[in-house]
Design brief:
Blueprint: E1 4-9, H1 12-20, E2 29-32, E3 39-42, H2 44-48, H3 57-66, E4 70-73, H4 76-93, E5 97-101, E6 104-108, H5 117-131, E7 136-141, H6 144-156, E8 162-164, H7 168-177, H8 188-196, H9 202-207, H10 210-216, H11 219-228, E9 246-256, H12 259-279, E10 282-293, E11 304-315, H13 318-332, E12 339-347, E13 350-351, H14 362-382
Helix pairs in contact: 4-5, 10-11, 12-13
The chain binds a DNA duplex (18 and 18 nucleotides) through residues 12, 32-38, 40, 54-59, 61, 74, 100-104, 184-190, 218-220, 243-251, 254, 294-296, 343, 400.
Length: 420
DNA sequence: TCTGGGGTCCTAGGACCC
DNA sequence: TCTGGGGTCCTAGGACCC
């Protein structure tokens, strides 16, 4: 039987802020989303104050000030870099690693069973704390779904920060008390329907009839049951397989009504998406552009729409993608609305090596690739947006704001920490 | 003034083909 | 005048995840 570990950083964004501000240790910390809109990360102290995940900042501002909560805008560049450092340490300790999200990774420990896994994981945890400065929790078990549960236990019911769910007696006890809505893949809707069937705990679900539940729900539910039984159905996806779609969108930092501003915004997002596309060495065949007003403002007139463009020859050229995106935007733009958000989705991605040559466009395509490679290399060397497309705008009045962002200590020379 | 952003997978249903 | 059955592909929408 295989053994999977799930390594998960504790309160990742809040912990990243603490690395560079040690005085935050033991104090409540929260991190906000774009535009300082919602609370998206909380330290344990902030959780204890009852501040919920995803709550709008303005509703909690007073309460947080009263409790001296330290509030930061999100600093994705910093978090991305810190994440990379954690993943590097993990990769040094286990060759089979799947980076599942910015703060989580699965490890396949099959080759390590000759030693005491618990000690190996304790040591790994200690090294990440010492070398990167971040606290992590590690759970391990025979399937990924069980490893998720083990990780929950490590985080909430273990002093060491490591939890072993391989032992059948321990597993039986944990599953019998583990609520279904906390199981990986069971969200709000599914847990309501499962409870109607008198299934309340992970043990109840494990003991249920997989075929019957498959007909009630879907093949996903059948897999979850197998995983709970210790039969691995969800394998480790070690290859960076490349995304199947790329989205780039943001809410605006102010009210936007003019087409010109929307065009700048969509050009900016299109350029970002195209960069990501080239990074994973893909081309897109199909893009969707959407825009909409603020659905929370029920009293102002609402409008939302989307438009599609197909490329005859798949592309990763920012110029083509920006042009197509602007064309889509003009098709769906209507005057006299206050817009809140626009964005672009690149779909039907394929490797850029699979080229459908066209006798006439071949040379043009080679030029395009060279041009884009040059732009990317300049921006990689000297920093993002060293050169950019005029269509993206210069002043960008529509840009989201981050009023409480900390310096990007690890990725910008100008923002390097100063020691006095 | 102020409510995030970026993903995946599955299913149902329509269009189309033979 | 009548109109089956099987298959594929695509899209929209729902549910979930971090």
């Amino acid at each position: 039987m295989s053994i999977f570990a799930l390594v998960d950083c504790n309160n990742f964004y809040a912990s990243c802020e603490r690395v560079f501000k040690p005085f935050l240790e033991g104090k409540p910390v929260v991190v906000l989303s774009n535009n300082d809109g919602c609370i998206i990360a909380r330290s344990n102290e902030a959780k204890k104050l009852g501040i919920p995940m995803g709550a709008p900042f303005f509703k909690w501002e007073f309460e947080m000030r009263r409790n001296k909560v330290h509030v930061y805008s999100s600093n994705y560049e910093l978090y991305g870099d810190m994440s990379q450092r954690v993943m590097d340490v993990l990769a040094m300790h286990c060759p089979d690693i799947e980076i599942y999200s910015i703060d989580e990774a699965f490890l396949l420990l099959d080759g390590f069973t000759w030693q005491d896994l618990n000690n190996y994981m304790l040591d790994l945890r200690q090294k990440i704390k010492q070398w990167v400065g971040l606290p992590v929790s590690i759970g391990f078990a025979h399937t990924k779904t069980l490893a998720k549960i083990a990780n929950y236990m490590a985080k909430n019911h273990s002093d060491s920060g490591v939890f072993d769910l391989c032992d059948s007696k321990v597993r039986e006890k944990v599953l019998s008390e583990f609520p279904i809505e906390k199981i990986w893949g069971i969200g709000r809707q599914l847990s309501i329907r499962l409870k109607d069937l008198n299934i309340h705990t992970a043990r109840d679900l494990r003991n249920a009839d997989p075929k019957r539940l498959r007909s009630h729900f879907s093949v996903v539910m059948e897999k979850i049951i197998s995983e709970l039984r210790g039969k691995s159905c969800i394998s480790l996806e070690t290859l960076a397989s490349g995304r199947k779609q790329i989205i780039s969108s943001r809410s605006f930092g102010k009210q936007v009504t003019k087409l010109e501003e929307l065009e700048e915004a969509i050009s900016t997002y299109a350029a970002t998406a195209a960069e990501k596309l080239r990074e994973q060495e893909s081309v897109t065949r199909n893009i969707t552009v959407f825009l909409h007003t603020n659905t929370f403002r029920e009293n102002s007139p609402q409008y939302g729409n989307h438009a599609n463009h197909k490329f005859i020859i798949p592309t990763a050229d920012t110029r083509q993608i920006v042009t197509a995106a602007k064309k889509c935007l003009r098709n769906i733009y209507r005057k006299n609305y206050i817009y809140h958000k626009t964005g672009i989705i690149l779909q039907n991605l394929m490797p850029d090596t699979v080229e459908q040559y066209d006798l006439l466009t071949f040379p043009e395509r080679q030029q395009s690739k060279k041009m884009m490679a040059l732009v990317d290399s300049i921006n990689n060397l000297y920093g993002k947006d060293t050169i950019f497309y005029c269509a993206q705008g210069i002043e960008k009045p529509w840009l989201a704001h981050f009023n409480k962002r900390t310096p990007r200590y690890t990725t910008r020379w100008q923002e390097l920490m100063k020691v006095k």
